[in-house]
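Fill in residues.
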């Protein structure tokens, strides 16, 4: 079907290099264990784009792993192959591997998708070139019919077009693994078992620490895409940041992806929130930290007390992702998949904002954003080997939506979403925040919902907000250093900031 000599074997050798164990250390055992998990997850694609001898070598390595619980070393690979019948093709492949081994990198499972993509692109190009070359031969002369000698040879333009169409159909049909009733049943059983385990451990439902959401909806759930809708400056990011903080403090693993600010700015905001949870009377603000305007006492308290305590409580469960300048959806999705497939998978992902991802210019941007929103929905449903993850993102509201919310005592409608109507279709829950000068002066914000697939919408409810820290909800002090502390509830504030200037 294609010229085997033209296929670039380097990506294949990189994958094999990752599968082969270098030594018997625990670190190497752990690395190759994750690699074999990746191989299992990618087995359909690997089979489709591999040469026959490559597939045989993959099969031998996987069989050894299942038998002995670890992958073989290079020397053992030769012993495995020579113990089989007709091993020459695989031995030749291993010899070619040895010639490039010194130039290959030591890769983890996180790097292998790129190698597989390189092989897939190369494979598809070679296959397409071969199909077109055969079609050209048909138009110029004749070739044997692939259906067998009992069928007439292919010749002429009409046969060439038919040949192209038939192969195109086969290519499209073979891109995905066959789904049978048995495989669907296996997936359903596995999904149910995972859901039952999450329900038993309390990891399926994520408390937000915001009473309006937790009391009426029970909190957020894995497998759901959630939005926080509001107008500019209405505390959308503060609400999502508070949800991330509270979930992490309650023991859930949280991935926070800041696209509107830097990692340093986000960490500063988290520390400031934590400072106000420890003592609601403190005067430290994010701006004072970023502008280096803290007093010496404030500096000492923040860096010597609050920071370490944050690391022992919420911080140990909070991952703030640095996507750098590559704010494409592909890079963001890769970060999410990395953390949902890790040994300690995240339960909650906060993207601040989803609609700030880098988009192409012109008319393609709108179509691309629709695709991203749909992909985020599927990611929420299926991330982490089907367990799913809860995704939360702020959503920009339009001016018209804000005016209509003002006329309705602060209650937003999903029609107030700015530009991206696809969000209305894909969101499982759409919460909203609303405030004005009077409400803000009272240290509050209105929180409600305009879409809730699990029940009735939440009516607009006044929720306290700390204007200095941005913490939404009742930020009461908690005991210092309690790694497994529930949401803040202690009534005795610590005196870290009693000496601060008011």
């Amino acid at each position: 079907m294609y010229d085997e000599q033209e296929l670039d074997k380097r990506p294949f050798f990189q994958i094999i290099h990752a599968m082969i164990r270098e030594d018997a250390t625990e670190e190497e055992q752990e690395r190759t264990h994750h690699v074999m998990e990746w191989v299992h997850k990618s087995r359909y694609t690997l089979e489709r784009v591999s040469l026959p001898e490559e597939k045989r070598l993959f099969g031998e390595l996987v069989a050894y792993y299942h038998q002995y619980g670890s992958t073989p070393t290079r020397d053992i690979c030769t012993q495995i192959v020579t113990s089989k019948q007709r091993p020459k093709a695989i031995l030749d492949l291993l010899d070619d591997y040895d010639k490039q081994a010194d130039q290959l990198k030591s890769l983890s499972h996180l790097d292998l998708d790129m190698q597989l993509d390189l092989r897939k692109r190369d494979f598809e190009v070679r296959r397409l070139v071969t199909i077109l070359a055969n079609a050209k031969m048909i138009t110029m002369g004749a070739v044997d019919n692939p259906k067998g000698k009992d069928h007439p040879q292919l010749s002429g333009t009409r046969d060439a077009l038919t040949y192209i169409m038939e192969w195109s159909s086969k290519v499209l049909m073979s891109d995905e693994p066959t789904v049978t009733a048995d495989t669907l049943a296996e997936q359903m059983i596995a999904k149910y078992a995972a859901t039952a385990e999450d329900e038993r451990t309390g990891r399926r439902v994520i408390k937000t620490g915001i009473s309006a959401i937790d009391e009426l909806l029970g909190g957020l759930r894995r497998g759901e895409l959630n939005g926080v809708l509001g107008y500019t400056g209405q505390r959308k990011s503060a609400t999502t940041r508070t949800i991330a903080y509270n979930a992490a403090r309650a023991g859930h693993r949280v991935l926070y992806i800041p696209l509107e600010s830097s990692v340093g700015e986000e960490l500063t905001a988290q520390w400031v929130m934590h400072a106000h949870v420890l003592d609601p009377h403190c005067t430290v603000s994010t701006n004072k930290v970023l502008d280096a305007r803290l007093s010496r006492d404030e500096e000492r308290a923040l860096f010597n007390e609050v920071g370490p305590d944050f690391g022992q409580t919420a911080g140990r469960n909070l991952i703030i992702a640095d996507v750098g300048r590559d704010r494409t959806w592909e890079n963001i999705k890769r970060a999410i998949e990395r953390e949902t497939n890790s040994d300690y998978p995240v339960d909650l992902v906060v993207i601040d904002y989803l609609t700030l991802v880098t988009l192409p210019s012109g008319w393609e941007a709108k179509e691309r954003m629709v695709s991203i929103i749909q992909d985020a929905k599927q990611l929420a449903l299926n991330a982490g080997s089907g367990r799913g993850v809860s995704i939360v993102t702020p959503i920009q509201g339009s001016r018209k939506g804000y005016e209509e919310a003002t006329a309705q005592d602060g209650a937003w409608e999903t029609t107030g979403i700015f530009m991206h109507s696809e969000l209305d279709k894909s969101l499982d829950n759409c919460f909203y925040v609303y405030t004005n000068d009077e409400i803000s002066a009272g240290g509050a914000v209105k929180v409600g919902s305009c879409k809730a697939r699990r029940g009735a919408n939440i009516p607009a409810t006044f929720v306290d907000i700390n204007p200095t820290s941005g913490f939404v909800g009742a930020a009461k002090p908690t005991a210092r250093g309690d790694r497994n502390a529930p949401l803040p509830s202690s009534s005795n504030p610590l005196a870290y900031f009693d000496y601060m200037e008011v």
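Residues 1-5, 478-502 have pLDDT under 50 and may be disordered.
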